[in-house]
Amino acid sequence: MENRSSKEHDAENARITHQMLKSRTGEFDLESILFLKLRGIGLYELGCIGDCLNLERLDLSNNHITHLGPLSSLKLMVALNVACNRISSVEPLASCENLQSLNLAGNLLCSVDNLQCLRGLHRLESIRLRDPVHNLSNSLCNNGAYRHSVLDTIPSVQVVDGERVTGCGSDLYHLCKDIDNSLKRFVSNGTIDVLKSVKPWVEEGYWELKPAHSTIIEETYKQFNDVLQECKELSKRADDTIAQAERALNIRHELNSYVF
């Protein structure tokens, strides 16, 4: 019976349905769903996910998804996590014009050419193709120069695999690269030739902090506030449950006192 029940449960979760979305979010109207987390539930098909037209953040990581077709109607989606699936094409995402953050680590993308369709996403700032912490990657990452190819393919991208490589915050990254390249030229027989006249690497005022308004930072704050709100709601529910339990215990105690 347990094996049968487990198989039935897996079959129910294999495809996204209206009932699944309603039960997980508590929303009767799918267009009211703004944030959705369906991580690691055994999904194979996206089903009716395209009906959540106002969805902004979606987590589909750790499933068995191969096709992203239904996501093409999610014009307002800002952040998408499809890490650890079986995706070989991201063509449907070309119409997600508001997409800013995309996690594709741990899929079947074999060439940067697979990302050409994302070139028109002018708001896409962050893309992840490799996640060494969770040992996730794509075969295209076997090419050591894949990050540069990604930047050439999608000009709007500023962060690759969690590392800011363009825009504000990338200066140190490029500076270190310049230093490494320069040192390689000066290293000879295990020694480093010291130049007589050394010019500063950067101009005066280079390291001064400058205000930056990044959609990635804004997105992080939004996600934090969402999680905080969820925690507050869970805390309130816990308090209500404890209060109900205490009332039940008090009533039981009074009844016992009355009987004896």
From TrEMBL:
<keyword id="KW-0175">Coiled coil</keyword>
<dbReference type="GO" id="GO:0036158">
    <property type="term" value="P:outer dynein arm assembly"/>
</dbReference>
<dbReference type="GO" id="GO:0005737">
    <property type="term" value="C:cytoplasm"/>
</dbReference>
<dbReference type="InterPro" id="IPR032675">
    <property type="entry name" value="LRR_dom_sf"/>
</dbReference>
<protein>
    <submittedName>
        <fullName>Leucine-rich repeat-containing 61</fullName>
    </submittedName>
</protein>
<keyword id="KW-0433">Leucine-rich repeat</keyword>
<feature type="coiled-coil region">
    <location>
        <begin position="217"/>
        <end position="248"/>
    </location>
</feature>
<keyword id="KW-0677">Repeat</keyword>
<dbReference type="Pfam" id="PF14580">
    <property type="entry name" value="LRR_9"/>
</dbReference>
<dbReference type="InterPro" id="IPR001611">
    <property type="entry name" value="Leu-rich_rpt"/>
</dbReference>
